[in-house]
Design brief:
This protein has a seven-stranded mixed beta sheet. The relative contact order is 0.17. The protein folds into three domains: 100 residues, Orthogonal Bundle (Hypothetical Oxidoreductase Yiak, Chain: A, domain 1); 171 residues, Malate/L-lactate/L-sulpholactate dehydrogenase, NADPH binding domain (Ribosomal Protein S8, Chain: A, domain 1); 41 residues, Wheat Germ Agglutinin (Isolectin 2), domain 1 (2-Layer Sandwich), CATH 3.30.60. The protein contains eleven helices and twelve strands. A hairpin with a 5-residue loop joins strand 8 and strand 9. It is globular and about 55 Å long. By secondary structure, the protein is an alpha+beta fold. The two termini are 17 Å apart. The mean pLDDT is 96. Helices cover 40% and strands 17% of the residues.
């Protein structure tokens, strides 16, 4: 796999998105989120996504320049219709709006519907943490095709339905949770397929309901398993709650729309720490708590304890220094798009 700097990937992705119809502002927001995912080590939500977004623009499933519309609002709540625009753009604006409300009301929440893929959830919860607040966000894929079989079943009926919570601290890297409620995010299966690598047993079933290590079996009628292994009812329970918050509370519904249009529904909430504790004290104690956890003697064969979000921070430091690895299959797709738009020479993708 070739390595490229974050700046190089942003240049390529931005030019392709603009050529596909995005504004310069929209393209910049999308690429910031995507390359932040690459830097954090979540390549499934990084530059690999750009060809699929362009496909969705061509199909009319993502509408560049779509209006951001508040359809219902109170002093502490907001309901946002993204009108099929870029999820990154609609969702970032909704999170900032919720943070601004929480500055005055101390607690605020919002739902967002009819928007494209929003990528890695932590980029939104971390916005709240950076503002001295606790941020929570959950998401589902509306009535787009599903990937996850509920515990005890072999047919996909749920999305990967991720959850992220971030808190302010004085740590070198942010402390946050960002997890799918499935055994693994669907994008990681796509990444393994693009790289031609096997996946661990326990991630997916094939179409016949058998365990498999072949990532291509997911798109051949297979299903992701829920988080928890033999205790997978816990992952399914979390996924059901996320589906209710992001599918039913938003009005998107459940099940699958035959049109297959991807539609991330989101629920987000922000809590102003200063309404509960002095912010400086809270941040100091979160930092001390993380140090307490990290002082745990390591288990046999373990490198020790990391606080939630620390591995992503260390990965970002390394990748900013050494570059980001991109699989050949993704470079080929980017090169083909650049050629089609007449940008190959300008972008050095010949």
């Amino acid at each position: 796999m070739a390595r490229a700097s974050a700046e190089r990937l942003i240049e390529v992705g931005t030019a392709l998105l603009i050529a596909a119809g995005a504004s310069a502002r929209e393209a910049a927001i999308v690429m910031r989120h995507c390359i932040d995912a690459n830097l954090a080590g979540h390549d499934s939500h990084g530059i690999i996504q750009i060809p699929s977004y362009i496909d969705r623009i061509k199909a009319g499933h993502i509408v560049p320049g779509a209006a951001w519309e508040i359809v219902q609002e109170s002093a502490t709540t907001t309901v946002v219709d993204g009108n099929w625009g870029f999820g990154y753009v609609a969702n970032e604006r909704a999170m900032q709006y919720t943070i601004d409300k929480a500055r005055g009301a101390n607690v605020a929440a919002a739902t967002v519907f009819r928007q494209g893929h929003i990528g890695r959830l932590a980029t939104y919860s971390l916005m709240a943490a950076e503002a001295g607040m606790i941020g929570l966000i959950t998401a589902d894929s509306g009535r787009a095709p599903k990937h996850v079989a509920p515990f005890g079943g072999r047919e996909a009926r749920l999305g990967t339905n991720p959850i992220s919570i971030a808190v302010p601290s004085d740590l070198d890297g942010p402390l946050f949770l960002d997890m799918a409620t499935s055994a693994v995010a669907a994008g990681k299966i796509s990444l393994a397929s693009a790289r031609g690598t096997a996946i661990p047993e326990g991630w997916i079933l094939d179409a016949a309901g058998n365990a498999t290590t072949d990532p291509k079996q997911l798109r051949a009628g297979g299903a992701l398993l829920p988080l928890g292994g033999s205790e997978g009812y816990k992952g399914t329970g979390l996924a059901v709650m996320v589906e209710i918050l992001c599918g039913l509370l938003t009005g998107l519904g459940f099940g699958v729309d035959p049109s297959g249009r991807h539609n991330d529904g989101c629920f987000m909430a922000v809590f102003n720490v200063a309404a509960f504790r002095p912010l400086a004290t809270f941040k100091r104690e979160v930092t001390e708590f993380a140090a307490y956890l990290k002082s745990t003697p390591p288990a046999a064969g373990s490198a020790g304890v990391y606080y939630p979000g620390e591995i992503e921070h260390l990965k970002a430091v390394q990748r900013k220094r050494d570059g980001i690895e991109v699989e050949d299959a993704t470079w080929t797709k980017l090169r083909d798009l650049a050629t089609g738009y007449g940008l190959a020479d300008r972008l050095g993708l010949v």
